Amino acid sequence: MNQEKNMDYQNIPRELFTKVQVDQGERERIGRPSLTAWQDGWIRLKQNKAAVVSLFVIIAIVALAILGPVFSPYNFAQTDYSATYQGPSLAHLFGTDMYGRDQFTRIWYGTRISLLIGFVAACLDLFVGVTYGAVSALLGGKVDAIMQRIIEILVGIPHLIIVILLMMVLPAGVGTIIVALAITGWVNMARLVRARILQLKNQEFVMAAEVLGTSQKNIILRHLIPNTVGIIVINAMFTIPSAIFTEAFLSFIGIGLSEPQASLGVLINNGYSVLQSYPYLLICPAIVIILIMVCFSILGDGLRDALDPRMSK
Amino acid sequence: MDDILRVEDLHVEIKTHHGLVKAVRGVDFYLKKGETLAIVGESGCGKSISVKATMRLLPSNGRISGGSVKLEGRELTQLTEREMLKIRGSDIAMIFQDPMTSLNPTMTVGKQIVEMLKAHRKDMSKEQMKARALELIELVGISNPEMRYKQYPHELSGGMRQRIVIAIALACDPKVLIADEPTTALDVTIQAQILDLMKELQSKIDTSIIIITHNLGVVANIAQRVCVMYGGTVVETGSVEDIFYRPQHPYTKGLLAAVPKLHEKTDKLHTILGTPPDLMNPPKGCPFAARCAHTMKVCQEYRPVFTEFEAGHTSACWLHDARCQPEGENQ
Amino acid sequence: MLKYIGKRLVYLVLTLLIIITVTFFLMKKLPGTPFDTERFSMLAPEQQEIMLEKYGLNDPVPVQYIKYLGNLIRGDLGTSFLYTGRPVADVIFSRLGPSMLIGIQAVLLGLAVGLTLGIIAAWKHNSGIDYFTMVIAVLGVSVPNFVVAALLQYYVGLQWGILPVAFWTNWACSVLPSIALSFSATAMFARFIRTEMLDVLEQDYITTARAKGLSQFKVLMVHAVRNSIIPVVTILGPVVVNLLTGSLAVESIYSVPGIGSLFVDCIKNNDYSTIMGITVFYSAFYIFVIMVVDILYSVIDPRIRIQGSKEG
Questions:
Q1: Helix (H, G, I), strand (E, B) or coil at C126
Q2: Domains present along chain A, CATH in parentheses
């Protein structure tokens, strides 16, 4: 012990050497306030600056996609042959295309379509995938075995090829893309949900609940669902950008949406055809799609780290 | 001085995303040549971090924030990483808690032993190294060393893996062997075998051992001296006899009372009420104050100082102070 | 082990059969055949009849299906409409070389750059190079490959004139497509090995290795990298899928005479038999790669080898 401390201790007044009553509750006090998984997750997400920024960028893009076309003086399909291929200016923030259509309006209208496709496809995926996965895991036994065999075959199929085939067969349009994406996209979600529920079913706290006589319904409601929501949300976060990408890809190779409909893919495709002379027609929609993809990807990662630390490994 | 290892006023901090954890807050202990020192305490009291710090093997988010570690009088905290490499493994070796995870799963056990020799015995030839590895495998009581040499860790049982871990640690005849809960992850029967092996090896190769454990049975079995840790500090040190028969600190007394005894008829298991302190905001006074049955005002304000009872038996508690009221002393 | 491979082969055949069936019936539902084109309608009705007969389009659909399956087994994928009269198998085969070249170059480039970046990033966790790698990783999976390809073509090829941007005359022509294609693979490898390494670096056996007095570099190369590289095999499947789909756009953009651009051309021209052929070819290739990857993984990792032999 060092000298300084010894000095200190000689001067401690005698009165302090009296017994005190320690509150029993105080003894059992846990140092840190206990938080629910969601509160804890939210705090961790807030600490992840990149994820927070991404969240705000996504909100901004969604707002622009909804409001941009509404407040623009132009219509997305309105042509103006006196003002074709104009560079970005005050009148046309992102310039105009070969028919003199305002790019600003078209880009945000296209973003709206792309986001719509992403969200709806993710919702359908979620609905089908979660139902399939949950039914498979909860029923177990033979049903599970058969459902698993089906999944094992389905995961072997290269999705994009089936989507392309569906796109060729079904009438072109937003609905078709969504249907094609949903038909192929739910498998991953189903697998994740099933794996998670099976894992939970074997965990001590669920077994403990069972032993304590909690009803099957309560186990599902109180234990299984709250602990599965995390991975569902996270997976949906990755489904949205992948759907947006697929749509853009299909439109780019010429079998997605077509004129005068606009989506980010259509715009990039149009821009690519005149890339040499008017690069801004490609670059503007490309930046928007990159922003959307990057932000969803970072937010998805952030959510995964925050809600389900084990999964991030 | 016959102290082979002396740790003084060691402080370690760990950075977590919740804040800075002061995991070790002024720990002193020493190890004499040829003896076995047990460091005892409950989970999270800083015992494992303390010994890892002596080898400078802290995780990347931890650092030694003060104090000294002397190996045969040589200050380790000031050495460069390169100098430290020569000491790790050859002067101080370590055995870890879980043999299931402490061996590299994709490397044969023979190679993992030879690797230690390669790092420190530059003078040995390849054949000599292999011969030495086989000798070590035999030394730790594994039969058929030629076959084991070529096997992967997952092909061995838990007890055998721990023997391999011990073989690796002993490869370069270390002066100090640190065993971090070497038996916790093993079956009870295997535990006894591993402890016997360690005792046997200690007499054979003349090494000094620090064993970390929360199992007082292990302490009684293997150690000569004991260091009791609580809340990142040492609360009591003494010989095994001192600690088991003349415990002074209320925490040590609590620990001993919590061991179920065969000859006593009782329906109740003794426990120490409460939970250990949060080391992110460590208490100002005695770390045990919140759980102690004899807490005084002074305990909440000042860290207690060590009082020496017999030679080498010290305890840090205000109850030992002369100013303490008589009713506080009586139990 | 053999039992496991056998099981996988059964799945392979089953999956392929399903894909073929789905493809076949979807194709039959298609509106507009190549026979709707002007060129065809200028033919006399008798000639039209001969053509339909020749391509077997007069048979009832189930008969066509059985015939198609039978031909498939003999390696006959039918006849291309777009490349009149040439067998589809020939057309695909003639396009295989360029696709393989840029595909393999892209994988190798992705492995080299991605693994190096990822390993350094994990080693220097939270350093500048770590953040750089993370940015590359996020961009690589987020920026659509056709945008990368288009921008590379525009800037590197046209503006700076460093590399050829189209045609397929010499090796230099394959550089830009390979780079464009490798971008997502690089990102996936970098990201995967980084996470894997960070996880491995936390493992007890790394502490054991450090306690042996091994230098940081040795711990990293001998213990950490080896254990983190093994699982990289598992993402080869997703990487290959990415390359396959990426090749459609990239090959079209750089006019590489590969299977990707062939597929896109056939889609635009409703050349069913070739589309079906490529679909079957792609699916078979993909399923085969996944199977090989799984088997490879169980061979490389001693832990899985044992578990596999116990279970199977």
A1: coil
A2: 37-74+96-307 (1.10.3720.10)
**Strand partners for A276:** none
Indicate whether B111 and B148 sit together in one domain: yes
Contacts of C302 in chain B (CB under 8 A): 105-106, 152, 154
- Closest C-alpha to A114, from A170, A174, A161: A174
Chain C hits for A250, Cβ within 8 Å: none
Contacts of B305 in chain A (CB under 8 A): 1, 5-6, 9
Q: Tell me which H or E stretch contains C230.
A: none
Q: Could you say which of B171, B192, B211 is where a domain stops?
A: B171
Assign A1 a pLDDT band (cuts: 50, 70, 90).
very low
Least confident of A187-201, C31-45, C182-196, C249-263: C31-45
Question: Quick check: C194 contacting B, CB < 8 Å?
Answer: no
Judge: C14–A290 Cβ closer than 8 Å, yes or no: no
Transcribe C235-259 into DSSP letters: GHHHHHHHHHHHHHHHHHHTT--SH
Interface test with C, best of A165, A238, A258 (most C CBs within 10 A): A165
Q: Are residues B206 and B286 in the same domain?
A: yes
- The H or E element containing residue C134 is helix C128-142
Check if C299 contacts B (Cβ < 8 Å).
no
Neighbours of A212 (CB within 10 A): 7
**Reduced to 3 states, what is the DSSP secondary structure of residue C75?**
coil
Q: Around Cβ B204, how many Cβ atoms within 10 Å?
A: 10
Residue C125 burial (CB count, 10 A)? 14
The model's confidence at residue C74, banded by pLDDT at 50, 70 and 90, is confident
Best CA proximity match to C213, nearest among B59, B114, B119: B119
pLDDT band at A312 (very low <50, low <70, confident <90, very high): very low
| Interval A38-70: pLDDT, tens | 677 777 778 788 888 989 999 998 988 888 777
Task: Report yes or no: B316 and B83 within 8 Å, Cβ to Cβ.
Answer: no
- Does residue B330 form part of some domain? no
CA distance C211 to B132: 19
The answer, yes or no, to whether residue B328 has pLDDT greater than 50, is: no
Q: C110-124 pLDDT, tens per residue?
A: 999 999 999 988 888
The ipTM, to two decimals, is 0.82
Q: Which residues of C touch B168 (CB under 8 A)?
A: 208, 212
Q: How far apart are CA B278 and CA B281, in angstroms?
A: 6
Yes or no, beta carbons of A161 and C282 under 8 Å apart: yes
Cα within 13 Å of Cα(A178), Cβ side: 15
DSSP secondary structure code for residue C32 in this structure? S
Q: Which residues, 6+ apart, have CB-to-CB distance to C289 below 8 Å? A: C236, C237, C240
Are B319 and B195 found together in one domain?
yes
Put simply, the answer to whether A31 touches B321 (Cβ < 8 Å) is no
Task: Give the whole-angstrom CA distance, residue C11 versus residue C199.
Answer: 33
What is the value of pTM for the model shown? 0.79
Count of domains for chain B: 2
**Residue after which a domain boundary falls, among B124, B141, B171:** B171
Between CA B246 and CA B261 the distance in angstroms is 17
Question: Any chain C CB within 8 A of the CB of B168?
Answer: yes
What's the Cα-to-Cα distance from B93 to each of A187, B74, B111, B181, B213, rounded to whole Å? 50, 17, 17, 14, 17
Banded pLDDT at A26 (limits 50, 70, 90):
low
Dihedral through CA B45, CA B48, CA B52, CA B57, nearest 10?
A: -100
Range of the domain at B157: 105-171
Give the pLDDT score at A141. 82
Of A291, A249, A237, A295, give the one whose Cα is nearest residue A111.
Answer: A291
* Residue A210 neighbours by CB distance under 10 Å: 14
